[in-house]
Amino acid sequence: MVNYVLFETASGYALFERLQSEEIGSKLEEVQQTVLDLPKFGKMIKLKSFSPFKNAADALENANDVSEAVVNPSLKAFLEMNLPKPSKKNKVELGVSEKNFAGAIKAEMGYDCSSDEMVQELVRGIRLWADKLLAQLKEGDLERAQLGLGHSYSRAKVKFNVNRSDNMIIQAIALLDQLDKDVNTFAMRVREWYSWHFPELVKIVNDNYQYAKLAKLIRNKSNLSEEQLDSMAELLDGDESTAKQILDAARASMGTDISDIDMINIENFADRVISLAEYRKKLHAYLITKMHYVAPNLSALIGEQVGARLISHAGSLTNLSKYPASTVQILGAEKALFRALKTKGNTPKYGLIYHSSFIGRAGAKNKGRISRFLANKCTIASRIDCFNDKPTSKFGEALKQQVEDRLNFYDTGATPSKNSEAMQAVMDSLADEDDDDEEVTDAKPAKKRSADDADEAPKKKQKKEKKEETEKKEKKEKKEKKEKKEKKKKNKD
Question: So where does this one cross the membrane (predicted)?
C-alpha cells in the first residue's frame, strides 16, 4: 500500500503523505469525482515536505534527470531526510508517476516504489490542485516557473545533438533527390514546349542543362546566324562541331513559327530550370563537405551520396553504426524483403548499396557476395566515424582497398589482405603521425628531461644498493633464527 507520493514541480520536489483513499472502489465514478473536489481531496493527502530548486539551472538539471530516469543527488538527500527507514513493522512504499523513474529510485535507494492506477489518480489530483496545495510555501508563481522550465528544457533538448551534423545531411540528401526529380520534370517540359519551334535540337543535345541554356540563347531559330557559333560552343563545352550542326539544323528545321509572347514564357521557364540546376550543383558540393566532416570513412568507402542515403534511411549515423551488416546490406529494400518472407521467395541481396560502383563492377554470380562484403565494411566505417574523436578518412581508404582486393580475388583468385592487417597498418600510420607531432611540439622539454634523468641516475643506483643490502640483512637474520630454533629442538630431544 502506498504511504507517500513524490510529485515533481517546476520549482522543486514535493512529498505528500497519503492519509486515506479508496482502493477497492477506486474505479467507481463517485470515488474518481472526489479528486475534483479540493476539500475531499485534501483529506486524502497531506503535504509532508518540499525541497525547492536553487536556481533555473538546477531545475533544468533535475528535469533532465527525471526524464532520463536518473536519481539526482538532491532528490536522494531529500528522500533520505523525509522518508522513514523501512522495516518489517513499518513498511514504506513510495508512489511515483513514471515506471522507469520508480525503478531507478528502488535500485538506488532500496525503497519500494509503485506507479499503479491509484498512484496515477493521486498524482492527477495533486497536479490539478498544485497551485493551492503549494500556495502556503510561497515559492513564487508556479505557472511562471513551469513556463520558464518548459522553455529551457525544450531548448536544451533541441540543442543536444550527439549526431553532430546528421540532420543537415538527411535534409540535404532528401532535397537533392527531390531536386533531381523536379529538374528532370521541368527540363522535359522545356523540351516539349520548345520542340514545337525547333524539334531537331532535342536529338542533337541530350543534356537538360545545356538544352535549357541553348533554348534561352537561340530563342527564334530564324534569327540564328554564324555570329552565335562561339557562344553556342561555349555552352557546349567548346564543341564547335555540335554548334555547326545546330546551325545547319536551324536553317533546315521543320518546326512551326513562334510568337514573341510564347517565346518570353519559354525563356522565363528555361531561366527557372537553369537556376534549379545550378542550385543543385551547389547543394551537391555542400553535401560532399558535410559528409567529409561527419562520416569521412563512409564517404571514402562508398561515396558521399550513397553514404548520405544510408544515414538518412537509418535516421542518424549513430543508428547506422548500431545496425549489423545484414541489416545494412538490405537497407532500403524492406518492401522486397517482406514480400519475399510473405511469399516464401528469395530475399533481396542488396538495397541502397546497389548504387555503389562495386556491385556494378562485380559479375552476376558475385553480386551477392560483394554486397555482403561491402555491407560489412560499411558497418565498420560507420562505427569508426561515429565513435572516433579525430575524424580521418584513412580507415575508409583502407576498407575501399579491401573491397577492390576482394573484387580482384573473384576475377583472378589473388588472395586479399586480412581485415586485421589492414586496420593495424592504418593504426600504425596514425600513431607515427601522432609521434611526429609530439616530437615537434615537445622538442625543448625533451632536453630538460634528459638532463634531469642524468642527475637522477646516481640517486637511483644508491637506492637500489640500499635495498639490496637491507634484503641481505633480513635473509641472514631469518637464517640465524631458524638455526637457533633447530638447536633448541635438538637439545630438548
Answer: none
